[in-house]
Design goal:
The complex is a heterodimer of chains A (160) and B (800). With 160 residues, chain A is α+β, with helices and mostly antiparallel strands. Chain A contains six helices and seven strands. In chain A, the strands form two sheets. A four-stranded mixed sheet of chain A has the order 5-4-6-7, sandwiched between helices. In chain B, strand 15 and strand 16 (744-753) form a beta hairpin. Classes of the chains: A alpha+beta (160), B alpha+beta (800). Strand 1 of chain A pairs antiparallel with strand 1 (393-395) of chain B.
Chain lengths: 160, 800
């Protein structure tokens, strides 16, 4: 190979390398596909979550929230920031539904699970069957109990 | 239509005409009307210069009938900063850019004329660009009437005070930085046009344009490089003194935006040296020439699109879309067409015999390295925008991205520079030994970090392993390559300068040596300046009281101590003349009912007072202008106004409000007072300057003294600008920032090493390039008059 051609090829390889590596190691500031609560990441696309849940055979937790809801802020601060809660939540597919959003799918979810005010959590099977509903605020302990209950119900359903 | 818009429209018409005539002449190969082009473009350039002069004049006299003037200046500013206002916003800076480009294009046309089809195409492109700029200005004019700001104001309404200038721009560096930058961008238009015309011509089967223009291209590129270097340097020194950012460079998007064309321009200057009509560089050199300007437009567009929240956001918004169209046009001509030609043309490049170690290959490596450096900056500027647009994921690009990727490239570039110079003098064997020694030393030094401070970026916030590796490199690793480069450059200069045939060649060699030494010193000083800048703080309380405590305050952890000698607090404007902010009764009468309903300040001598139970009305200067003051209660209502005294007042002006008066200004007790001491409501404070006089001692010896503090701009969202105290030392600068409020001064004393080296490097770069520009025996300005411009340079270059 001629030297200049080799140099030029090396140049492009290097260039692409820098481009790829840097783009993927840049710190993420925010992501449209996720909603952030406490230290947890929530999906915002319900259909995607549904699909993922049935593929991985996991229940879905839907969190109905708004930006102005003070109990949601309490959830952020006292519940989602807790490592144990985070570990528990990893067993679920998490979807956050902003009640103020005018996305059509959100409206249907809101109707279907009768979630008219924030904060509410509905835990469902991938098929949409309701397992547990948490209306209003639940503190860390209660929230963990609800999650555990949902898992028990889900496992019981699976075994039938 | 006002004078400014008429001038813009005239410029647009004549320049469009000139572009049309040249384009037609090129396409149809028909010289009809070409004789008019010089006259037309001359008119265009004069009209644009006139428009710029008109706008500057409006700023100098603060003509607030112009919305742009109203938005970007105020009476309290000194003359220099009223002129700075001209290019503080988008419209004005485009006008400056357009006027300079018109001047450059016109001059180029006069010097060379339009002897052949190629030159017609080149000039059609340059005039086309100017025409486009003027078109942008017609769509969003810097001469728009104030009515665009106050749509509901009565006809003829003119405010009495302006919005003021962005505080960051109130600085001598900023008064010169933008014009210098735009001169450079204007000069880049010529190389762009020549490069673009070259490929258009090749596609049309009309042959090479570049060969005949090579001398010109070299000169244009060098002059632009000179101006761009000065612009970058001025910008850096500005951020060092104004912001207290603690350095000359922060990878702010706008800083990066000017660095991208600078790096690529540097690469292009090297590439054009290697241009030979039959070589591979017959494509690369013209392509790069065309690309530089596209990059300047691209980076300008991306930072003006408003995507970045930068300290430079003073010029956001507006012109966005027309910039993006320009970006697409210049990218097509400057990047896509050359690339397409490169893909489509067949036949291998000649001139390479397969040997690796040749001057040409080394120079090619240098061009590629500069290309990579450009890419690092360009990519850092672009990928957050691209990624957010495509995936909705917002990522941040931080300074360690730029630093960590650029550092090794710069190190390699220095090794290459040393090797190239050495190779030139010593031949293959000895130079390779040199490279091996210094290269090994550099790699070894990369692992030697006496403390964590020596590491580039010990623990970058992202966990990417590549940043971990790059960040752990010790900055000692820059020393062997820098030493090698300086040795090589000096050695070659010593070997070559005495051997030069004539004075011009000798000056050129000296200039090239200076540039390269300057570049080495620049990259040597930068990492140390950042990594070894130390800082510590001290506090002084009770400074606002009558007796300032002048005792020594130790700066913890350093050998410094500071003494606060005095405290000063001033408000501006100080004792402004009433006519600078208020209207006289005569002026009110002259403007008539157009003032109805607007808020105005007025001044005059009291000639009559009528007190009623709820209001007092005061006549000014025996005129039909009265000031009315409503008194709601006894305490605030006891106005002590006497006939014969001077008065200023501010309030809503009502026309035909009461009998026997044309205008009544409805003031409140808070907005009426004497001209000697006008109340805040009449003349708001523009700048609040707080500062402490300081003396800084090191080991008990006085280092420097002066005033440090801050200027606060209440009318501009309480924005603050620091007044720093800098002692420019030979080895380290002592840099004091003070925040003064509530009787407390908190002072930060910084030590910034190697600033002198950096200043020296800038001087060397500028002086070196000026020398080359003037004295180059082949393409120097001195030889411009003597030689005919059309040499195809079959002889390979023997320098650079």
């Amino acid at each position: 190979m001629k030297p200049r051609k080799a140099l030029t090829i090396a140049f492009f390889v290097f260039l692409l390398g820098i481009g790829y590596l840097s783009m993927h190691s840049a710190p993420v500031l925010s992501d449209d596909n996720y909603s952030y609560h406490g230290e947890t990441e929530w999906r915002t696309d319900f259909s995607e979550a549904e699909q993922l849940a049935s593929e991985q055979d996991r229940p879905i937790v839907i969190y109905f929230w708004t930006t102005w809801c003070t109990y949601c802020e309490d959830y952020n601060q006292y519940v989602y920031s807790d490592p144990e809660v985070q570990a528990e939540l990893d067993d679920f597919v998490k979807v956050a539904v902003n009640l103020d959003s005018d996305q059509g799918e959100y409206g249907r979810l809101q109707q279907r699970y009768n979630a008219n005010y924030p904060p509410q959590h509905v835990i469902i099977t991938p098929e949409g069957e309701q397992l547990v509903k948490i209306s209003g605020y639940a503190d860390r302990e209660a929230f963990l109990n609800y999650l555990a209950k949902a898992e028990r119900e889900y496992d019981a359903g699976d075994n039938q | 239509m006002n004078v400014g818009n008429v001038l813009l429209a005239t410029a647009f018409a004549v320049l469009l005409g000139a572009t049309g005539i040249l384009a037609r002449a090129y396409l149809a190969d028909d010289d009809r009307h070409v004789g008019y082009v010089t006259m037309l473009t001359g008119t265009g350039a004069v009209a644009l210069a006139g428009a710029l002069a008109q706008l500057t004049y409006q700023f100098v006299v603060t003509d607030y009938s112009n919305a742009y003037v109203w938005n970007n200046t105020a009476d309290y500013l000194p003359l220099l900063y009223r002129v700075t206002g001209v290019y503080a916003g988008n419209e004005g800076s485009i006008l400056l850019w357009a006027a300079l480009t018109a001047l450059v294009a016109f001059t180029a046309g006069v010097i060379r004329g339009f002897p052949d089809r190629h030159s017609k195409l080149v000039h059609a492109i340059t005039f086309g660009i100017v025409t486009y700029f003027v078109g942008m200005l017609l769509l969003q004019s810097p001469f728009a009437s104030i009515r665009t700001e106050f749509a509901n104001a009565p006809p003829g309404y003119i405010p009495t005070s302006g919005e003021g200038l962005n505080p960051l721009l109130v600085d001598p560096y900023m008064a010169i930085h933008p014009p210098v930058m735009f001169v450079s961008y204007a000069l880049l238009t010529m190389p762009f046009a020549i490069g673009a015309a070259h490929f258009v011509s090749l596609f049309r089967g009309d042959g090479s344009v570049f060969a005949a223009w090579r001398g010109s291209v070299t000169r244009w590129l060098r002059v632009s490089w000179l101006f761009l270097t000065v612009a970058v340097a001025l910008g850096g020194l500005w951020s060092y003194t104004v912001l207290g950012w603690g350095g000359i460079w922060a990878w702010d998007p706008v800083e990066t935006a000017i660095l991208v064309p600078w790096l690529f321009l540097t690469a292009t200057v090297h590439a054009v040296v290697r241009y030979r009509p039959n070589d591979e560089y017959r494509i690369l050199a013209p392509a790069m020439t065309a690309t530089v300007f596209s990059l300047a437009i691209y980076t300008t567009s991306i930072v003006r699109s408003g995507t970045f929240r930068s300290v430079h956001s003073f010029a956001d918004g507006g012109i966005g879309i027309s910039f993006i169209v320009l970006m697409v046009l210049t990218s097509v001509l400057g990047v896509v067409v050359p690339l397409a030609y490169w893909f489509l043309q067949d036949g291998e490049a000649t001139g390479s015999d397969g040997a690796w170690l040749t001057r040409d290959n080394l120079l090619h490596a240098a061009v590629l390295l500069f290309g990579l450096l450009t890419f690092v900056s360009l990519w850092g500027l672009s990928f957050p925008v691209l990624r957010a647009a495509v995936t909705g994921v917002e990522v941040s690009v931080e300074s360690h991205y730029f630093n960590l990727w650029s550092y090794p490239l710069v190190g390699i570039a220095l090794l290459l520079l040393g090797f190239y110079m050495d190779f030139d003098v010593e031949g293959r064997r000895r130079s390779l030994t040199g490279l091996a020694v210094f290269g090994t030393a550099a790699v070894a030094a990369a692992f030697v970090a006496p403390s964590e401070t020596w590491q580039l970026s010990p623990s970058p916030p992202t966990q990417s392993p590549i940043y971990g590796v790059l960040g752990s490199i010790s900055v000692l690793s820059i020393l062997p390559p820098a030493a090698y480069a300086i040795l090589g450059v000096t050695k070659r200069a010593l070997a070559r300068i005495p051997a030069t045939a004539d004075r011009g060649a000798m000056f050129k060699e000296t200039g090239i040596t200076a540039i390269h030494v300057g570049a080495v010193l620049l990259v040597l000083s930068l990492p140390f300046m950042y990594m070894f800048a130390g800082q510590a703080s001290a506090m002084a309380t009770g400074i606002a009281s009558e007796s300032v405590d002048t005792s020594y305050q130790d700066v913890a952890g350093t050998d410094y101590s500071v003494r606060v000698l005095d405290y000063t607090s001033n408000e501006f404007p100080q004792n402004p003349k009433p006519e600078s902010y208020a209207l006289s009764a005569d002026q009110v009468a002259a403007r008539g009912p157009s003032l109805n309903g607007t808020v105005q300040a007025v001044y005059g001598t009291v000639t009559d007072i009528r007190r009623g139970p709820q209001a007092t009305v005061i006549q000014l200067d025996n005129s039909r202008t009265w000031v009315g003051v409503i008194q709601r209660n006894e305490t605030t209502g006891n106005l002590s106004v006497q006939t014969g005294q001077g008065l200023v007042a501010r309030g809503r002006l009502m026309w035909n409000f009461v009998p026997n008066a044309d205008a009544t200004v409805l003031a409140s007790p808070q907005t009426i007072g004497s001209p000697a001491n006008p109340p805040e409501g009449v003349v708001p404070t523009r700048v609040q300057v707080d500062g402490v006089s300081l003396a800084v001692y090191e080991d008990g010896k006085l280092v420097t003294s002066g005033v440090a503090g801050q200027r606060e701009y209440p009318q501009q969202g309480n924005m603050q600008v620091r007044d720093v105290l800098i002692d420019r030392g030979l080895v380290t600068d002592t840099y004091v920032i003070a925040g003064v409020s509530d009787g407390t001064a908190s002072m930060t004393v910084k030590q910034v090493p190697l600033m002198s080296l950096l200043r020296l490097s800038i001087v060397l770069l500028v002086a070196g390039m000026s020398t080359v520009l003037v004295f180059d025996p082949e393409h120097g300005i001195q030889t411009l008059t003597a030689s005919t411009a059309s040499s195809t340079d079959v002889e390979p270059e023997t320098t650079d």
